[in-house]
Design goal:
Immunoglobulin-like, mainly beta, globular
Length: 143
Amino acid sequence: MRRLLPFLLALTLTHMAHAAENLSVKDAWVRLPPPGAEIVGAYLTLEAKQNMTLIGVKSPAAESVEMHTMSMNNGVMRMRQVPSIALQAGKPVKLEPGGLHLMLIKPKQPLKAGDIVQIDLSLSSSQGKSETIRVPAVVRKPN
């Protein structure tokens, strides 16, 4: 059973990562936070089949989720919230440490390695259609 569980988890995550008709989500993970952390980074790669915009993010595991970008300005790292993230058809957008990323604000319970955090991505297509996609992200240490 111990060998079967990781296989089933991987199969489920792979299936859910491709559940959206117009969006592929890969490598979703949440940084393992130190005890008591009130802000936790989350990362993933998005690839749209048509032009879309990521217009919001929520998670049942946190009070709120924000989209952020980081940049270096005169030797100072700056992080700022962004209202949306444009996704061009066929062009992967990587949300990663040091760049675009998600911030889970005030996790509702302590997160430990191996936990699965559900992240809901709200998208709007260029035709005005909206959809929400639930993505599982594994809590782990950065590589």
